[in-house]
């Protein structure tokens, strides 16, 4: 039976949210900077007070119960509201000061963030960015639910309830093993992919969908092949270096400082295929000029670091 006098604490809700996102008690405790026994006790107290089992835990897995899934959006909203109160009380009166939770897709984060974070610190010294790296669908859901404030992702997306500000365009390149016939080639046609073992990222990565779409446009069959696939762009690059195939990547991923010596690069003929990156916001925030200013900083970094073209 629930205790109707019980009022969950912010920490208890934060523990529940983190466990639900991580599905792992130890990593959740590490993220929150608390001991695992303290985390378990906080969750148990929350469940007891609510009279609900929120999480199922076994020796092998952690699952969120149906009741937990129903409660999770409200827990997130409550924590977000309390954090906002704290930020305002601490003098965070504007968007570009205080904590700002920024989502970034995995195929952009490793190449954009090393330049972006110092640029944000210089341009907005009162801003405290918090980075969430995740796939598009989960970033969109996080944006809708208030878990993140904005996201840097490829456009377009079919998501409802969010809008995007186009920022910059970057071309695609083809990574091949060093010594491959296409290594160093320029102005290649996407049709050459028909004869290559093409490595794709896992489902959920927008770069996978963009690669599949490119192949379809030139009538190159891609799905149903039995080549290797990777969960991250870093793994795909390692597979290419190991001679397991070729892979389409954004131009930002082929800079000299990040290139594996076992990798060769081929460039596409103009108009080269590529992607447009945008700043995604909840619909209600679309007209905020502060977001546009932040977008200009992101675009400038992309121009300077990997020669992206502003939209």
UniProtKB/TrEMBL annotation:
Membrane-crossing residue ranges in chain numbering: none
Keywords on record: Activator, DNA-binding, Transcription, Transcription regulation
Domain HTH lysR-type: residue ranges: 12-65
Any Pfam family hit: HTH_1
Superkingdom assignment: Bacteria
Keyword Hydrolase belongs to the record: no
InterPro entries documented for this protein: LysR_HTH_N, LysR_subst-bd, WH-like_DNA-bd_sf, WH_DNA-bd_sf
Keyword Transcription among UniProt keywords: yes
Assigned protein family: Belongs to the LysR transcriptional regulatory family.
Protein name as it appears in the record: Probable hydrogen peroxide-inducible genes activator
């Amino acid at each position: 039976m629930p205790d109707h006098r019980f009022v969950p604490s912010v920490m208890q809700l934060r523990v529940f949210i983190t466990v639900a996102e991580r599905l792992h008690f130890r990593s959740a405790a590490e993220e929150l900077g608390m001991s695992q026994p303290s985390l378990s006790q906080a969750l148990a107290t929350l469940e007891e007070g609510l009279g609900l089992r929120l999480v199922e835990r076994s020796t092998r897995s952690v699952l969120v119960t149906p009741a937990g899934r129903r409660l999770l959006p409200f827990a997130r909203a409550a924590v977000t509201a309390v954090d906002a109160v704290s930020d305002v009380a601490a003098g965070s009166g504007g968007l570009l000061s205080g904590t700002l939770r920024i989502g970034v897709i995995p195929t952009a984060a490793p190449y954009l963030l090393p330049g972006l974070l110092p640029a944000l610190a210089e341009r907005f010294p009162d801003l405290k960015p918090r980075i969430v790296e995740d796939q598009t669908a989960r970033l969109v859901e996080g944006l809708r639910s208030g878990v993140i404030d904005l996201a840097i992702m490829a456009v377009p997306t079919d998501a409802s309830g969010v809008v995007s500000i186009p920022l910059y365009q970057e071309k695609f390149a083809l990574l091949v093993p060093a010594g491959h016939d296409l290594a160093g080639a320029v102005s290649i046609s996407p049709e050459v992919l028909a004869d290559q073992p093409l490595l794709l990222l896992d489902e959920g990565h927008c770069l996978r969908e963009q690669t599949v779409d490119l192949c379809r446009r030139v009538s190159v069959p891609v799905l149903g092949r039995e080549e290797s696939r990777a969960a991250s762009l870093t793994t795909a690059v390692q597979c290419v270096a190991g001679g397991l195939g070729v892979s389409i990547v954004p131009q930002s991923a082929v800079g000299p400082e990040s290139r594996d010596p076992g990798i060769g690069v081929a460039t596409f003929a103009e108009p080269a295929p590529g992607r447009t990156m945008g700043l995604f916001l909840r619909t209600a925030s679309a007209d905020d000029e502060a977001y546009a200013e932040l977008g200009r900083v992101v675009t400038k970094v992309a121009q300077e670091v990997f020669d992206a073209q502003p939209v």
